Task: inverse folding
């Protein structure tokens, strides 16, 4: 760890060991005996970017089928056994990977390894038409619930489709289209498994209150005999010009509660210092309630209810910066847009102040402490760096790299990327004036991140 | 074609080793010089420290016609102090890498702070300023009111929130605070100004009726001394805790459809009120409710999701609304929620009712009960890995007038609850003729088939 901003930062003391089975499965182990829990995380190097035209959503639909049983696990047995052992579990699908994870009481770790190995090696013996039909309906309802039946629900899909041109592997989001979900066949699912679900296309991490030697022996016992196989096609080329090269624009007239201005910008690939600099730029501009855009639009101009920037980090294509502004009352979009343009242009010229840099770095550092503060978060990050960048150890040094970025690098990224000719804009104009007497603060378990599909609806006890 | 299963070596399912001991953390208590009650709890390795402050400023303390003033007052705590303007305060917090949120609910007002341990003292200083000398600046309050008014249409557009609003309105007596939106209506919020927010805060917020919960890696810290130096500066007179009025509700079976022409799904919220955590039935009710709808292998999802594919997931839950100091007058919301495709709305309800009837007739199985206990008790160490999760539960216990070891004992009580008790509790919690059904969906397509189910009178209201 090179940085000293918080000398006690957890990441400083964490270690991981790396192993590889003969069949190509990469294994990362990290010990932490503070709590008697162990997290198992398995990343398969396959996501929606591997899907072909006419079969969007297949990677995610397939992820659901991974919970429908395998040679020694009946129907919903995977869920039943993990939950019955006091564990929690899920799977998610994004553009670049599919992950499966179990967090177990430490004494039940072996069960999670057995379950993951069983489906990695024998899913097809259990996969049938009935579970495909059922999960197709479940996924279509997931799409309705999270996107089609929610105001602005399809915004992300529309923005992504503009940022990555037709035919680009990232042009569509992981949820896929209804028509393609309808078209997916059992043979598609089988072929998908045979192509991508191989030990040599996966990374397994185990983190927590574990005995590394014993854990490795279990991994060898359960996963070791699963044959590796080649034949995975190289992913389609995701390279694109650094900037879009012009301003794209789409206006949606829909029954939404207020006008909205959203934009995406192409940003540097994840894993680069430039991506970290861009992240800091987005944080200064639109992360939290002391950011420039929040201060300008929400506090001073009072033209917006909410205003912020998010970043979708991608390794195989340009990352995305995502601006989301919901208009206040009767404010027109051009008023907001002019203010945003002014702030972006000013920032590209001036760069961040030292105070802004300190705040942005402190925010990102806390986010990292949060992510690495649980065994499941740590297991996921180890897999991420192993799959996408070939080195799990980078997870422990990530925060240090963000703290090393200079204000000038941040300014340079803003100038190079946050420009009108690198922007896809989505404007919402409400079709019917919202009316109604009042609002209720209900309780709702929200779904995952943008661009990430879950197997199960959020669990809460 | 050969499947890899043919070549993989299978082994018997492993049975697991002996469980390693884990207990729900026991906090230490102290009272600061200013009368503020403190619970603190050292969690080694948890570098993001969580702080919760409970203020005895419940929604029923809001003056007539000013629903939402507690919410505005809570939000104003983030908007400047005697020392810092609103923008400066936000900047100072973020400089600590901290987040601070405050909100108002039926039991009281709650401020939540999370901050890396290295900057805890600085952040506690800001929290102390916010509690001690909130600015309630006229322009900032005006902005918060405007912002709140802008939020309301967004909440109304959200099917889950719209359903909750309709259910509360339906269940609770007109005129009771709990029947109305927690954060106020457009009409009531528009009346709120800086004077009203300040008056509400000043009348109800003081250290002697408040509690602070501090959880995280406190290595090298004397928590009580640290708190004395920061929030110990907050002063205020003594006051009696506010009385907690009893909650009454009308759960006669009926259906309310909130019309959303063209909606592709129907949001379901089916509910009534039941006992709170003080009631001896609570552990059995938690177990039984989990068996009914706690996860995708529970009874409801086994049919509605995994057999029929009607939904992405339906959940049953019990959530405490408010509790009284002696265990009297408290209530929880017992509910089933989820969304189903529009065209299968009535079939999904019919199946849900069949699940409830079968449960009442045949009861839970011993296996179901065992799995529920193993899950609910077994996940505790996972669920309470972070400081924030522990702080939140400790704060809930205080807010609900429960002993500090309630959660720890709850696990033992669940483990000793039998199948028969769990069955009785969940059947009593969800009687098929005492459930209020709210459907947010396309009335033209769902009203007729839902009416035919005979769940009770059906009424359609405008979206």
Result:
């Amino acid at each position: 760890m090179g940085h000293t901003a918080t000398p006690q930062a957890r990441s400083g003391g964490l270690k991981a060991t790396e192993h590889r089975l003969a069949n190509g499965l990469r294994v990362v182990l990290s010990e932490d005996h503070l709590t008697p829990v162990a997290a198992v995380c398995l990343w398969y190097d396959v996501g929606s970017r591997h899907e072909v035209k006419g079969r969007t959503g297949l990677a995610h639909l397939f992820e659901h089928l991974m919970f429908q049983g395998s040679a020694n696990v009946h129907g919903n047995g995977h869920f039943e056994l993990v939950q019955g052992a006091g564990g929690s579990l899920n799977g998610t699908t994004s553009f670049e990977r599919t992950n499966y994870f179990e967090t177990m009481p430490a004494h039940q770790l072996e069960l999670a390894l057995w379950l993951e190995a069983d489906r990695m090696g024998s899913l097809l013996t259990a996969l049938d038409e009935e579970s495909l039909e059922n999960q197709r309906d479940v996924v279509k309802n997931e799409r309705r619930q999270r996107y089609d039946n929610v105001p602005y629900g399809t915004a992300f899909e529309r923005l992504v489709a503009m940022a990555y041109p037709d035919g680009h592997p990232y042009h569509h989001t992981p949820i896929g289209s209804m028509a393609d979900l309808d078209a997916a066949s059992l043979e598609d699912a089988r072929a998908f498994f045979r192509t991508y679900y191989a030990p040599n296309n996966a990374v397994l991490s185990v983190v927590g209150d574990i005995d590394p030697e014993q854990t490795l022996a279990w991994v060898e016992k359960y996963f070791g005999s699963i044959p590796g196989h080649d034949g995975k096609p190289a992913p389609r080329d995701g390279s694109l010009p650094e900037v879009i090269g012009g301003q794209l624009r789409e206006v949606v007239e829909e029954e939404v509660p207020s006008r909205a201005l959203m934009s995406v910008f192409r940003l540097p690939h994840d894993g680069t210092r430039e991506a970290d600099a861009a992240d800091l730029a987005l944080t200064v501009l639109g992360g939290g309630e002391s950011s420039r855009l929040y201060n300008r639009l929400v506090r001073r101009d009072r033209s917006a209810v909410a205003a912020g920037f998010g970043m979708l980090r991608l390794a195989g294509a340009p990352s995305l910066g995502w601006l989301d502004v919901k208009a206040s009352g009767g404010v027109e979009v051009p008023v907001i847009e002019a203010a945003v343009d002014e702030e972006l242009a000013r920032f590209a010229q001036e760069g961040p102040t030292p105070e802004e840099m300190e705040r942005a770095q402190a925010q990102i550092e806390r986010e990292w402490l949060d992510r690495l503060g649980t065994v499941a978060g740590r297991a996921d990050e180890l897999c991420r760096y192993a799959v996408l960048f070939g080195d799990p150890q980078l997870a422990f040094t990530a925060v240090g790299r963000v703290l090393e970025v200079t204000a000038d690098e941040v300014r340079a990224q803003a100038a190079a990327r946050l420009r009108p000719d690198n922007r896809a804009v989505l404007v919402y104009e409400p079709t019917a004036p919202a009316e109604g007497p009042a609002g209720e603060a209900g309780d709702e378990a929200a779904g995952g991140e943008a661009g990430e599909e879950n197997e199960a609806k959020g669990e809460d006890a | 074609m050969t499947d890899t299963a043919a070549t993989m070596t299978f082994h018997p399912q492993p049975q697991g080793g002996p469980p390693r001991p884990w207990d729900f953390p026991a906090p230490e208590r102290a009272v600061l010089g200013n009368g503020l009650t403190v619970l603190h709890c050292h969690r080694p390795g948890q570098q993001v420290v969580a702080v919760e402050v409970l203020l005895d400023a419940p929604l029923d303390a809001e003056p007539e016609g000013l629903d939402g003033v507690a919410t505005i007052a809570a939000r104003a705590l983030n908007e400047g102090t005697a020392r810092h303007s609103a923008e400066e305060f936000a900047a100072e917090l973020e400089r600590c890498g901290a987040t601070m949120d405050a909100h108002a609910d039926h039991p009281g007002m709650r401020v939540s702070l999370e901050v890396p341990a290295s900057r805890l003292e600085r952040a506690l200083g800001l929290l102390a300023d916010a509690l001690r000398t909130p600015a309630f600046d006229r322009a900032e309050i005006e902005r918060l009111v405007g912002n709140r008014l802008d939020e309301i249409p967004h909440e109304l557009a959200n099917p889950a929130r719209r359903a909750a609003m309709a259910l509360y309105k339906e269940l609770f007596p007109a005129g009771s605070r709990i029947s109305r939106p927690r954060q106020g209506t457009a009409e009531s919020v528009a009346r709120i100004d800086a004077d009203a927010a300040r008056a509400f805060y000043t009348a109800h917020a003081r250290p002697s009726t408040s509690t602070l919960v501090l959880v995280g890696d406190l290595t090298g810290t004397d928590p009580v001394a640290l708190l004395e130096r920061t929030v110990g500066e907050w002063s205020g007179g003594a006051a009696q805790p506010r009385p907690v009025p009893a909650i009454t509700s009308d759960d006669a079976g009926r259906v309310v459809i909130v019309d959303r022409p063209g909606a592709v799904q129907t949001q379901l919220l089916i509910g009534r009120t039941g006992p709170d955590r003080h009631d001896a039935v609570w552990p059995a009710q938690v177990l039984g409710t989990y068996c009914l709808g706690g996860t995708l292998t529970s009874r409801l999802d086994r049919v509605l999701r995994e057999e029929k594919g009607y939904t992405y997931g339906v959940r049953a839950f019990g959530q405490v609304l408010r509790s009284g100091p002696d265990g009297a007058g408290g209530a929880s919301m017992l509910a089933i929620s989820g969304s189903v495709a529009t065209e299968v709305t009535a079939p999904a309800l019919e199946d849900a009712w069949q699940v409830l009837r079968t449960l009442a007739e045949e009861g839970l199985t011993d296996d179901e009960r065992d799995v529920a206990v193993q899950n609910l008790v077994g996940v505790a160490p996972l669920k309470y890995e972070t400081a924030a999760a522990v702080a939140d539960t400790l704060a809930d216990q205080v807010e609900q007038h429960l002993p500090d070891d309630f959660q720890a004992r709850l696990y033992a009580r669940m483990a000793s609850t039998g199948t028969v008790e769990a069955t009785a509790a969940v059947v009593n919690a969800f009687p098929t003729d005492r459930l209020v059904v709210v459907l947010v969906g396309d009335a033209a397509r769902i009203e007729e088939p839902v009416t035919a189910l005979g769940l009770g009178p059906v009424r359609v209201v405008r979206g």
Summary: Residues 1-5 of chain B have pLDDT under 50 and may be disordered. Chain B touches chain A through 111 residues (CB under 8 Å). Chain B has two domains: 28-233, 254-461. Residues 138-157 of chain B form the longest helix (20 residues).
